[in-house]
Amino acid sequence: MKRTLAAIGAAAAVFGGMVSIAPTASAADGWCTTTIGVDRGGYHTLVPATSSGSTSCLMGKGSSGEAVEALQLALVICHGLDTGGIDGVYGGQTVAAVRTLQSQTGLYPDGVYGPDTRGKVSWRWYASPGVGSTCARL
Known about the structure:
4 strands; two-stranded antiparallel sheet; alpha+beta
């Protein structure tokens, strides 16, 4: 009985530590449901955004649409990660790709896209037609 209680206590301590270091969603303005264009230095990219245009938004397993597609494009092309395709569906492979990116960049690997993860993503930036493209953070 003592071993069981000790194991439960240790698990609770570990879980409690994990919860306390997990990122909060309070900094997000809502769910990513669309994309907005961002221009910088002659380059243009699309990034996930809320319906009101805020790029401080969340996506996770079950999300879908153009915002997910923009994230998948960046993960595949700029980070070389496998999202299971650029299909606009935030499924298990996209979760795994986001976790990998988060681990590689020092974030808590929860697989949820939010403001902290957005800052670590290298987005695909396009120049004028025929000029080229590059990958860079916002």
